Amino acid sequence: MSSSTILQEPWSRGLSVMVRLDEVLVRRRTAFQDLLIGRNARYGLCLFLDDLMQSAQSDEALYHEPFVHPAMVLHPEPARVLIGGAGEGATAREVLRHRSVQHVVAVDLDADVVDACRRFLPTWSAGAFEDPRVELRIETIQATLSAAPDRSFDIILLDVTDPVLAGPSVELFTARFFAEVARVLTDDGVVVLQSGAFDLADPSLLRSVCATLGTAFEWVRPMLLHVPSFHGGWSTTMAAKRSPQTETAAVDARIEGLEGLRMYDRTVHRGLMHLPRFAAQALEPPGAVITGDGDARLITFGLDR
After folding, report:
1. Spelled out in words, what is the top-level CATH class assigned to the domain 5-56?
2. Is-catalytic flag, 159?
3. Which of 13, 100, 179, 268 has CA atoms 20 to 30 A from the CA of 188?
4. Could you give the residue range(s) of every CATH 3.40.50.150 domain in the chain?
């Protein structure tokens, strides 16, 4: 399929971004969302869900490497990993760079998205779905968690859709959901989630995500990313039941042992562990805990610096 099309992505109040696709490889409505894979002159092949950019050929590593590796290297020997939002397979690809990994449960709600990415974006997964350590499940992440025994996973990576408080994925950012995540995480485990755009003009959403994580975890660490195809600042957030040591010789050695990376190294790791002053100040005010029940309370999650 080949044609030119223009998408207009809302960015924030009063702003939007227009993206021209010179070629559309697939566009269809799945059971859950609008799926589009096309080619842009600047970013190459791109994946869109509901007309919103999810991943681009030119810079997907700038998202997936810092999304996966900080959590993985903070654990002494991650063996069991859960991925919520298997999608294009790039998260699983990065997880498998760690030799200690024995079993990966990769979950996605939408089989059509996974199938289309395997067909049209094969370099994203780089064979990860064929690796015998990877178990692909088509189901909700809530169903996966509900069936999992206590302390089942060393690392949980939640690459779910954006945390829009009025959106369909709000349940995946609630205090009760994070309590269930904490139940299946090992005592020395780490969870990381995609926590949406970081807009200095209105950082309230990231404050809320951090505050809500703080109801289930002792340690919460937001990280800021720059991914050009996302058109602005982005964030991921780590959490753990107890504070890990983020910068040690052992952590450096684990980073040095990784091969084939495009951007993540010891220097990048240290940068991710320290918020810029402007961001730390923006996140100091209390955030509203997301309950999913229409009520909220303000708490400060206690950013350690």
Report:
1. mainly beta
2. yes
3. 268
4. 60-299
Task: Exactly one of 59, 110, 154, 159 is catalytic; name it.
Answer: 159
The class (CATH top level) of 60-299 is alpha beta
Q: What's the rounded Cα separation, in Å, for the pair 89 and 164?
A: 23
Please give the model's pTM, rounded to 2 decimal places: 0.93
Cβ atoms 275, 303 nearer than 8 A: yes
Q: Note the pLDDT tens digit of each residue in 66-105.
A: 999 999 999 999 999 999 999 999 999 999 999 999 999 9
Q: How far apart (Å, rounded) are the C-alpha atoms in residues 137 and 142?
A: 12
Instruction: Read off the pLDDT of residues 214-243 as tens digits, 9 standing for 90 and up.
Output: 999 999 999 999 999 998 899 999 999 999
Number of other residues whose CB lies within 10 A of the CB of residue 76: 12
Written as one letter, the residue type at 162 is D
| DSSP-assigned states of every residue in 243-267 | PPP-S-HHHHHHHHT--S-SS-SHH
Q: DSSP class of residue 216? A: T
- Sign of the CA dihedral with 105 first, then 106, 108, and 114 last: negative
| Least confident span in 158-162, 189-193, 253-257 | 158-162
In 3D space, the residue among 272, 245, 243, 259 whose CA is nearest the CA of residue 70 turns out to be 272
Q: What is the mean pLDDT of residues 62-69?
A: 98
- Cβ contacts of 240 within 8 Å, gap of 6 or more: 74, 188, 189, 190, 191, 217, 218, 219
DSSP H/E element including 73: helix 60-74
The residues of the chain that CATH labels 2.30.140.10 are 5-56
Of 35, 62, 82, nearest in space to 193 by CA: 82
Q: What is the pLDDT of residues 145-183, one digit of tens each?
A: 999 999 999 999 999 877 554 445 678 999 999 999 999
Separation between Cα atoms, residue 212 and residue 270, nearest integer Å: 25
Q: Which two tokens stand for residue 298?
A: 């303000």
